[in-house]
Amino acid sequence: MNRQDMNAFGQDVYVTRADAAIQFLQQAINWGRKHSFFQYPFVTACCGMEFMATWAPKYDIARFGAEFPRFSPRQADLLFVVGTVNHKLAPYLRRVYDQMCEPKWVISFGACASTGGFYDNYATVQGIDTIIPVDVYIPGCPPRPEAVLDSLLLLQEKVMKERPELSERILGPQQIEEARQHRAMGGQS
Amino acid sequence: MSVKALEKVAKKFASEVIDKHSNAGDDTLIVKRAKIKEILKFCRDDKELKFEFCMDVCGMDYLGYPNQDRFEVVYHLYSVTHNHRLRIRARVPENDPVIDTSVDIWPGTNWFEREVWDMYGVKFKGHPDLRRILMYEEFQGHPLRKDYPVNKRQPLIGPQN
Ligand code: SF4
Is the ipTM of this structure higher than 0.85? Predict the structure, then answer.
């Protein structure tokens, strides 16, 4: 059965009822995830001050459900890389990232973490994206707390759009393949 | 204020002194490296000098300066008792970059000397634990030497260049 519709979250287009059900479940889980980030603060330099300011009552990141830092990467799903990362530290950053469980996201906080900043020298990693994948970059040296909150909202948007991986985890890949075929046939007929 | 101290050390080790000056109140003594240990010990122990505190040890690279040894090790001394300061610079040649350690005079210079070794490659004879302190063990060369290429990167992980 072909159907075009909007779901409860104002998003688009489903082909079958089964698909719609899966999508709805995914949306619900995404919605839960985006409001309960457990972050791991990897704070190495001066950007940390703005990071703390964002956490403090005035800007209050708790409004977005991300106020609870876990100091074990195994319990965290959002890695905040805050400040300069040098080559000596880089293997440990990679290790922290590898220890985090899926699903996981990375925010690169400030010019140094994103590009190396003005430390274009022998000691500094020229952007953490040379080591680990990054979801959101925050510009600034250091970024204002507003920019940090903005990045969090961007990440929430991104999480809300996540689909295929999640449904694989709910139903297993075979059912997803079936649904895809179903959809493809629906498209042809 | 510490011109007196400068003169006293210069007089006592007259044969060791290469140069001395008091530019802008910074009393500086430039010496040969051979007797550096005795000079520093004298600075610490003499009643009028009493430099109990070695504030910093750092390196200098005079690459390309004619008629001069390439490296220098610089000691910044401060006397808490007399409230005066003295800077002692010891010349170290490139082909044999070794100087006596000062760790047994001021234990606090341990990490300073490791830093000078790490950044400039000057060895300190008699240092108890001369390892790199800032860079990682795998790092090749000494990054603050003037002939270390400015674009050279040696990442442990990530893209090489
Ligand atoms: S981006 Fe600026 S404030 Fe942030 S760590 Fe680098 S130098 Fe410090």
Answer: no
